[in-house]
Amino acid sequence: MDSIIAALALIAVGYIVGSVKTINQGNEALVERLGKYHKKLTPGLNFIVPFLDTIVLEESIRERVIDTEPQDAITRDNVSVTVDAVLYWRILQLERTYYAVEDVEVALRNLATTTLRSEIGRMELAQTFSSRNEINQSLLQQLDDATATWGVKVTRVEVQKIAPAKAVMDAMELERAAESKKKAAISEAEGKKRAAIEEAEGAVQSMNLLAEALRAHPNSREILRYLVAQRYVDANYRLGDSPNSKIVFMDPKALSEALGELISTEPPEGNGSGNGENGGGNGRIQPPPMGM
Fold this sequence. Notes:
There is one protein chain. This protein has 292 residues and is α+β, with helices and mostly antiparallel strands. It folds into 3 domains: 2-60, no CATH class; 64-168, Band 7 domain (Tetrahydropterin Synthase, Chain A, 2-Layer Sandwich), CATH 3.30.479.30; 200-268 and 277-292, no CATH class. Helices cover 51% and strands 21% of the residues. The protein has helices spanning 2-19, 94-100, 104-121, 125-130, 132-146, 166-216, 220-241, 252-263; strands spanning 20-23, 27-33, 36-41, 44-47, 53-60, 64-67, 71-74, 80-91, 152-164. The strands form 3 sheets. Strands 6, 7, 8 and 9 form a 4-stranded antiparallel β-sheet that branches. Strands 3-2-5 form a 3-stranded antiparallel β-sheet, with helices on one face. The chain has a two-stranded antiparallel sheet with strand order 1-4. Strand 2 (27-33) and strand 3 form a beta hairpin.
């Protein structure tokens, strides 16, 4: 009799121990009874029926990360690029995840890869670099919709790298360099054009001021002749000061006569110039000798 009681007590203890299941925080477990889904065990102390109930899965419901392998994709303008992304997800309904899909992580990785390729194929290469946020949001929406029946939630998608082939990168660098040179040349041309316009405007203003001053002065011809001679002297000085200048021999008398012919004109009638008050009765101003 005592042995029977002891055996019953041992069975009872074994039954109690077998019926108690502890689930850690952050995990959930699935229980099947006689091969059919029965219930889900939540974190804490849970009881099952030994020999009838079986825990078929205990899984984490915390957020997890899937780092996809770099994949080749073709943009809309037929440029080959290498792309990869990081996928953040978590299980919301463990029973649907277990019974709806064979391996949820493999399914998510393959779905993320194909969706990423499809999204890159809708854009041109230049657009992919400037539209990372748009790509991330589009991938998140598509993956979240596709995995709704799997009992999982895709919380975030981040495209890590979009890398064209080396030949494409070299061509892009050359294009950027050419564009920079073009902009620099345009800026330089605009600057020279502006400087030339300002210089011409300054010359016109100077000529206007000089004309006004000469019209108001009684000895305007002598002043003009002096200015021309002064410019000639200044030009000769700069020519001699230049490191690659050339020595030019010129007859001073011939030069004086040439300058006189250049700046001498027939005086208008009635202005009193024909009386020879400026050094000659023929009305022409004789240039001063070069020795002045």
